[in-house]
Specification:
The longest helix is centred in the N-terminal third of the chain and has 14 residues, at 17-30. The protein has a six-stranded mixed sheet, sandwiched between helices. It has a single domain (5-189), classed as 3-Layer(aba) Sandwich (Pyruvate-ferredoxin Oxidoreductase, domain 3), CATH 3.40.920.10. It contains eight helices and six strands. 38% of the residues lie in helices and 23% in strands. The radius of gyration is 16 Å and the shape is globular.
């Protein structure tokens, strides 16, 4: 019996966290798992936090992940990784896109973006993987595919076959973007972070 696996996807509006969670949920369902999803959009259209909680397992009763219970945190941006660090489960993984997106208080000069986020996280978490998903996506043909690069890195950590992920991408992504997204998934899956 597979104990539920808890995945927290965190980013800001416009980074594709919702699409990534849809592909993840589709892949997990196709692999035969019970899946529960909870989305928090916040001020997504204005660059605010977007958080999706995805739980998969033989039987999952609630979509919510408690603090200290995320097996994997997939962070689309550095500050969001730090903001949601309390949800990390001891022994779990944090995958971080090294991109920085400055929130409004930082842009207005009312706050400062921390310089040492990755170092702070690595001091508290043993398994931290950092990748330049934006640059990898650009190399695959579109900066908008950074979310799928991150999904590829996540896929190595979950009990879902690579072919099932590919089918979920094909079923979720518009056909005209499939080639770029397949390349982005492959890049993330093969990334050595």
């Amino acid at each position: 019996m597979l104990k539920p696996v808890n995945v927290l996807l965190v980013g800001v509006g416009g980074q594709g966290t919702i699409l990534a969670s849809k592909v993840l949920a589709a892949a997990a369902r196709a692999a035969g798992y019970d899946v529960k999803v909870s989305e928090i959009h916040g001020m997504a259209q204005r660059g605010g936090s977007v958080v999706t909680q995805v739980r998969l397992g033989e039987k999952v009763y609630s979509p919510l992940i408690a603090e200290g219970e995320a097996d994997v945190i997939l962070a689309f941006e550095q500050l969001e990784a730090l903001r949601w660090l309390a949800y990390h489960k001891p022994g779990g993984t944090i995958i971080i896109n090294n991109q920085r997106l400055y929130p409004v208080p930082v842009l207005a000069g009312a706050a400062r973006y921390p310089d040492n986020i990755i170092t702070l996280i690595k001091e508290r978490v043993a398994d931290v993987q950092v990748l330049d998903a934006l640059q990898m996506a650009v190399e695959c043909g579109s900066a908008k595919a950074a979310n799928v690069v991150l999904l590829g890195a996540l896929a190595r950590k979950l009990p879902v076959e690579k072919a099932v992920w590919r089918q979920a991408l094909e079923n979720t992504v518009p056909p005209r973007f499939l080639e770029i997204n397949n390349a982005a998934f492959t890049a993330g899956y093969g990334a050595r972070c």
